[in-house]
């Protein structure tokens, strides 16, 4: 057991000076992985970019009120609230000279992170798994199979508990490994943490709560999202819903 623990620690304490002695894929002029997914989908939803009904709060207010919320009202979010949450959590703000600028830090603008959501209760939006198309502020329907809610809940170790949304922060490791080699997994985890923190604070603006979740069934979750679980897999999850 102790040897496995020690081995696992190495992933979060890489030596940057060793990295300087390597030739990364970028330095070898290998082709850079695509930074965005634009999947084929039977349904693409354009999200709102203006939010007239969202009453803003100060950063001090949302930090003071933020607490992990583990069960929720069975209450739907509005489409405006859904759009607002995604817009502020992890959108691409702009791209300049090939460099991606997001609402969260991303190592060397490699943009390894993707965001999937499970829609459980949102007004006017079909329940299902969606990919957030971050550079277009759209949702693409990925999975609406039968009994999906039960599968989502089982993969979350029964932590759905009335949530309106489930967020899945996934990472495409080749994007960050292209520039940072074996340091990539650590940087991907940091990026997922930044995104989840944004989510936790933005939820407070709409009087909702979030529970960040690291305990879930890895293979089942990746399968639900239809990602390969090899170089693209889930790193972090979170439920979101109206507070009781």
TrEMBL record:
Domain Nitroreductase: 63-241
Pfam family, one: Nitroreductase
InterPro entries for this protein: Bacteriocin_Proc_Enz, Nitroreductase, Nitroreductase-like, SagB-type_dehydrogenase
Any one GO molecular function term: oxidoreductase activity
Name assigned to this protein: SagB/ThcOx family dehydrogenase
